[in-house]
Amino acid sequence: MSKNELLGRPIKRISIADQVARRILSLIQTGGVAPGDRLLPERELATSLQVSRASVREAIHALVILGILEARQGSGVFVSRPEAVNDRPLRFVIGSSVSGLKKLYEARVEVEQSIGRLAALRISEDDLSRLRELLNPQKALVKDPVRFRVNDSEFHDIIWKSADNPILEKVARSLHALGLERRSVALETPKVLARSCQDHRDIVAALADRDPSATAAAMAAHMQNVLKSTRKREV
Questions:
Q1: Reduced to 3 states, what is the DSSP secondary structure of residue 51?
Q2: Are 177 and 84 within 8 A, CB to CB?
Q3: Counting CB atoms within 10 angstroms of each CB, which of 12, 80, 154, 170 has the fewest?
Q4: 69: part of which helix (H) or strand (E)?
């Protein structure tokens, strides 16, 4: 990208909550807090960062949905111990090559199809209603990749849980976590996010019809679209 192209891009305004979330992430990445450690209470974090408690609460909520933090009733908020991050053998096998990326999404297609088939048969009406609620704001979030990712994570979380198969759910979460690193650039593109919005609508429509085959096909199509966008941005 040339200097002129870079200067011509609009400056992004980052919300206070997003800045707080990034500070917490930085603290985790630099070893300031380790997996299993308890974060400072909300009030102390707000005082330390000189922001409102509402901004801290929003940031923590986003990181909890993404699985980076874990809220324990009556105990506080802790840094998660995600198996996907600690599973070094799996990460080594996948590697960072384009072929590794292809194999990652090949696995995701298979797993997400299986989850889709089960979810179509087992999802509750309450969970379907929540999925529809999550669809509503997605179009408005295509230029806000951080909030879109929070929405997207909850969307897939509901489907994984609806399949009611803890083993498939754990595998799906691990593969999803591995894919997030490679998808970060692609997720900044409004066109890519708009494609995901439509994919999500197709998935919900198939789930609402209780159609296992259609749901599996919609889940597979979504994974293929994500792979295409990620590879295109890496070329």
A1: coil
A2: yes
A3: 12
A4: strand 69-72
